[in-house]
Amino acid sequence: MKTPPSQSQQRGMVLAVSLILLLLLTILAITASTSSSLQERMAGNAQENNVAFQAAESALANLSSQVEGGGVPAGDDVLALTYPTRTVRARMQSASRYAEGSSLDAEENSGTPLILIYDFTSSATLDASATTAAAITDDNTNARHLQGYRDRIIQ
């Protein structure tokens, strides 16, 4: 018959088990910290992309409202949008061309219809140093949107 180990022989085992559990808890804490840090950076990037997207959309809406109001938009201009923490700039570019309309586009005896087609491009940047249209380039653009606009003219 074997005799159970004495108390003095078991004392080292408690220390070894405690150290292993402490090591496992430390690894778990480091992993959780790294994961939450990464998720915070990803959320920040998503917010930045959303700000740039909204700035580019606002620039397109601005160009469209200029045309709808009877004006002619500038070929290359900057729209500055102020947010609570910063100013975001969007480069607004427009080009126009005429296309011949069909008789279906005109009312009877009204003249020759022409279609004025606008091509709008907006490029938004989060770069604070880009304050002019020429400074907003492909290198610092965070969002770009294109839109077409058609306006009928009867001559």
Write the layout of secondary structure elements.
Layout: H1 7-68, E1 76-82, E2 87-100, E3 113-125, E4 141-154
Antiparallel strand pairs: 1-2, 2-3, 3-4
Protein name: Type 4 fimbrial biogenesis protein PilX N-terminal domain-containing protein
Pfam families: PilX_N
InterPro entries: PilX_N_dom (IPR025746)
User: What is the overall number of helices?
Assistant: 1
Q: What composes the largest sheet?
A: 4 strands, antiparallel
Low-confidence runs of at least 5 consecutive residues: none
Number of domains: 1
Main structural class: alpha+beta
Instruction: Give the H and E element order.
Output: HEEEE
Gross geometry:
rod-shaped
Q: Indicate the mean pLDDT.
A: 82
Pfam families: PilX_N
Organism: Aquipseudomonas guryensis
InterPro entries: PilX_N_dom
Domain Type 4 fimbrial biogenesis protein PilX N-terminal: 11-61
Which descriptors apply to this entry?
Type 4 fimbrial biogenesis protein PilX N-terminal domain-containing protein, single chain, alpha+beta, 4-stranded antiparallel beta sheet, 155 residues, PilX_N_dom, 1 helix, 40% helix
Short synopsis of the structure:
The chain is an alpha+beta fold and 155 residues long.
